[in-house]
């Protein structure tokens, strides 16, 4: 098995000790260097051939975002921070993921898996975790972040998507089919080649032929022939023993 060379930069020695422990538990990782000194990181990355960097966000004299800017896209970086609201900023700066302190071994493992996957697929990898959706925006280096619970429906726009939320409309640089694979099936359903809906936003399916749907926001959407069976299955599971023609006022 090829082991990914990694490095830890954190001004807290307890944090470094924890990362050492987590890294030792991963046979696919090899810790080549750990330091509490944030100076000269770019040179150390080159010296040790680092492929994955775990980087603290707030350190004396320099912060992780400045180091990210120095590194560019040469390596994969996971930012570690105590500030949950800085996640989108870290992704915008080029991080593949961000860990909010304190984090457990399972969350660390998901960050590693994402970093490895991003190495295969490039910087368009979508991140989905803990009720948040972080995905590429339109334009190089642009990302958007939102809560899944805020999504009303998603609309295809050629090779990108338009995400309609309770308060805003956002455009993501990802195809609707690619995004569909990442959304939790207990919360979202594809009803048309151009539409995915949040199940808790459904208000009414129009007519027994299932040709249309109306959301709680009073938006009307079409139901495609290919997707009627999946919608009907959901409605029947939602209303066991009820009518199976797809009509509902729920």
Automatic annotation (TrEMBL):
Q: Which Gene3D superfamilies match?
A: 3.40.50.2300, LytTr DNA-binding domain (2.40.50.1020)
Q: Which GO terms describe its biological process?
A: phosphorelay signal transduction system
Looking at the record, the residues that make up the HTH LytTR-type domain are 135-237
Span of the secretion signal? none
Q: Which GO molecular function, any one, fits this protein according to its record?
A: DNA binding
* InterPro entries on file: Bact_response_regulator, CheY-like_superfamily, LytTR_DNA-bd_dom, Sig_transdc_resp-reg_receiver
Entry-linked SMART domains = LytTR (SM00850), REC (SM00448)
Q: Which domain of life is it from?
A: Bacteria
| Entry keyword Phosphoprotein | yes
Q: Where, per the database record, does this protein carry 4-aspartylphosphate?
A: 56
The record's listing under PANTHER family reads: RESPONSE REGULATORY DOMAIN-CONTAINING PROTEIN (PTHR44591:SF3), STRESS RESPONSE REGULATOR PROTEIN 1 (PTHR44591)
**Name the UniProt record assigns to this protein:** Two component transcriptional regulator, LytTR family
Q: Which organism is it from?
A: Parapedobacter koreensis
């Amino acid at each position: 098995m090829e082991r990914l060379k990694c490095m830890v930069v954190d001004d807290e020695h307890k944090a470094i000790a924890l990362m050492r422990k987590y890294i030792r538990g991963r046979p696919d990782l090899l810790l080549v260097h750990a330091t509490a000194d944030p100076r000269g990181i770019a040179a150390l990355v080159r010296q040790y051939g680092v492929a994955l960097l775990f980087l603290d966000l707030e350190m004396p004299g320099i912060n992780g975002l400045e180091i990210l800017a120095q590194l560019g896209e040469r390596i994969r970086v996971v930012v570690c921070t105590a500030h949950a609201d800085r996640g989108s900023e870290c992704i915008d700066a080029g991080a593949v993921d961000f860990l909010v302190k304190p984090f457990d071994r399972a969350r660390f493992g998901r960050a590693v898996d994402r970093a490895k996957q991003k190495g295969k697929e490039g910087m368009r990898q979508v991140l989905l975790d803990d009720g948040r959706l972080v995905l590429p925006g339109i334009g190089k280096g642009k990302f958007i972040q939102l809560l899944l619970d805020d999504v009303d429906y998603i609309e295809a726009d050629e090779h990108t998507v338009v995400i309609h939320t309770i308060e805003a409309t956002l455009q993501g640089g990802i195809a609707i089919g690619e995004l569909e694979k990442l959304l939790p099936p207990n919360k979202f359903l594809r009803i048309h080649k151009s539409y995915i809906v949040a199940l808790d936003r459904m208000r009414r399916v129009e007519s027994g032929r299932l040709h249309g749907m109306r959301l709680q926001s009073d938006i009307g959407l079409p139901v495609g022939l290919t997707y009627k069976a999946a919608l009907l299955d959901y409605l029947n599971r939602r209303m066991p023993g009820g009518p199976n023609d797809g009509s509902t006022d729920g």
